[in-house]
Amino acid sequence: MRRALIFLAVLCLIAFAIDAEDEEKSGLVMNYYKDSCPQAEDIIREQVQLLYKRHKNTAFSWLRNIFHDCAVESCDASLLLDSTRRVLSEKETDRSFGMRNFRYIETIKEALERECPGVVSCSDVLVLSAREGIVSLGGPYIPLKTGRRDGRKSRANVLEQYLPDHNESMSVVLERFSSIGIDTSGVVALLGAHSVGRTHCVKLVHRLYPEVDPALNPNHVDHMLYKCPDPIPDPKAVQYVRNDRGTPMKLDNNYYRNILDNKGLLIVDHQLATDQRTKPFVKKMAKNQNYFFKEFARAITILSENNPLTGTKGEIRKQCNVANKLH
């Protein structure tokens, strides 16, 4: 009995040491603000819910933000920085086409500043607002670590090296995500974010003009042509197709059924359903939403912990769109 108790104690110590090592490695911990700003996560949740009631599309924005920020070198809110006279903002690059609602990140940050000035980073706001946006869209609640600090520079000049385009080959897409620790099933789950929101005609007319891509489901083509009547659409016009006509406001596994039925809007959607490396996971997620949610949560967690700035690195921005002034 005594030996068994000693053995259990040793196992507990080993488990504790592994957890501590993981936290030390990333510098992130669960409930980082429990002493410095106990209400932080509640404030972010409340603000996201209030904004969602007024502007449903904010939830899509929060979800897209985490991909575009955390996949590019570091999860440090560099995406949120405005352009300066010398440096282009990531928000203004082609890869960020259609992204919006950045001003509402400031709304969340202002609420936090009223409660706990200079404590909660914009990178944690970005990550936690994504989590709450996922919940607003009917997705899983994902426990995420906090303690990130904010970067001071835009990464617009390297963005294309990290973020795959919607026309990239599946090999490139898998390779880009693999470089930050996300495996094939994780990539398939992350692209399930295409279950919600909409795609601007600019991004899909090459599949309609001058000839319709024969890979598209003919029953879906008429709707796409109706929504995108111009071969060269105006990027500023409100011309778009909903990613999922069945449940456009719900993060669910309907996306996988659609792409298996050749109703994916983007080339990457079509490739996901046809590439032999990804197709088995697409089929499994199409049949099992719990599996999709489990893999989606795992991939979002990995993404959110990609090379964060912690400790004394970076800063806590006063405003999310500008770096603090150095005196």
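Next protein, fold it too.
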Amino acid sequence: MTTKVPVYGNYHGYYSKRPPAISDARLHHLPSDIFLNARVLDVGCNEGWITCEIAQNWGAQKVVGVDIDESLIEGAWRRRRALWSSQGPSSSSTSNNQEDESGNTLSGIALEPTGRKRSRSSDSDDDEPASKSKSTKHGKSTSRPSRGNTNSSSSYFPASCEHEFGSLPIPPANPSNPSRGKHMFPHNVTFVKADWVDEDIVEDKMEGGWDVVIAFSISKWIHLNKSDTGLLTFFHKVFRVLRTGGTFILEPQPWDSYAKAKRMSGRLKENARNLLLRPDNITITSEREGDEGGLGGLGGGEEDDDREEKKKVRSFEEALVDEVGFRKVKRIEVQGEGGFARPLDLYVKS
């Protein structure tokens, strides 16, 4: 769904607004093996930067990004192909390389005398639909890249190559070739357009469930669009699709950021007046000091009403633990600039 006003948080060029980095800093604050051999769902994936990074550099077995905005999903597929085009040849490929009479390496990726990249295969699986495989995390012995692999193989060719000559076609997965298996980048990442809170995707029904579900910077938008009920529906669904012992990584936007977001539409502003869930424990008293500092609209201002509302207000943590059934593992403080310095909350399905 494309809209001029990003009422779903569906900002185009979102990652250009974040502090520039080769690798997203949030991933480096997480446990070192959290994505290793894991099946990962990235809800609200935007243009797929983090989704692709997890698939390419963090050893994930399968990663699916889902977003409500079709044009962002199209951008995510382009991101996948761009990263593939800049990725260097694998060690298994280079060990079988041959050279032509000009001394140029010939492998899955070849260099012309001018330095231009070309593919020796005309087959491509780019922009394929989401996979229906039902592989599981347990019992896998496939080797994986080291944690946060940001070495030169991920950016072997400069971005200018793709800009000048276009993207390389992606060859089909080849189970007999370790570097081209379905659990290796780019075959281990796909994207789906869906309003995931209310729509199931095929992979949600796979045997064993997801190992990790990520919700980076989307809780506010679900909350404002679908109210408390919709956010609770989201939390319950995450719990349902995770395997027992699976991890939910939540990056909640702070409560004071809602004030600006609600101005995007009358519907968001109206929904905001009745919200009782909070990213953190915040009292009604502090919110009533001003509509812009909080959101206001919670009761009529009488003391009895205030006391009643205070009883109803809950934090996300209280809802996730007491109602949904998660166990909170930890809160991780992430260093960042301005509004991007948000904590990550880790919950485990018991």
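About the second fold: The two ends are 35 Å apart (CA to CA).
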